[in-house]
Amino acid sequence: MQLVLNVLEIIGEVYITIVLLRFILQLTRADFYNPISQFVVTATNPLLIPLRKLIPGWKGFDIASLVLALLLHMILVCVVKLVPLGHIIPLLGQIFIVSLIGLLHLVIQFYTFAILILVIISWVAPGNYHPGSILLHQVTEPLLKPIRNIMPSAGGLDFSPMILLLLLYVIGSILSGNY
Prior knowledge:
The chain is 76% helix and 0% strand.
């Protein structure tokens, strides 16, 4: 039974991350015609299009995708964490808070992996024009650019990914209560 719950949790978190990625892609105005962007749109449309009829966007923010991610995470918390413990009637507020923190952790994990992948690509294949690396640049640049503007030049070395990884680690530790 625990194995089934673990697999369900992994599949659920992957799909929720894809929904969050759709929000991030729209927020950063990443290339819509990128094949990876097209996959994200295709994977999330079945649940997102009906929800958009109820929840419109606001000032360029796709609120429906955030609501969908939150609802899916709340369902995942109920199914994977609470039902096996025998908690039949959990408090909705607690599930909301746990899910909100879980979504923030997923965003932190996404950006951590995205930055690590970009760093590895810059070592192995600098100047690579793969659709995945282009999309990662588009998504991470809004977070890296302010750090680059603050940090002095280090002779051609870019330390902004390392600073951002450190900030993501600190935020993740605070959210987890491991500080």
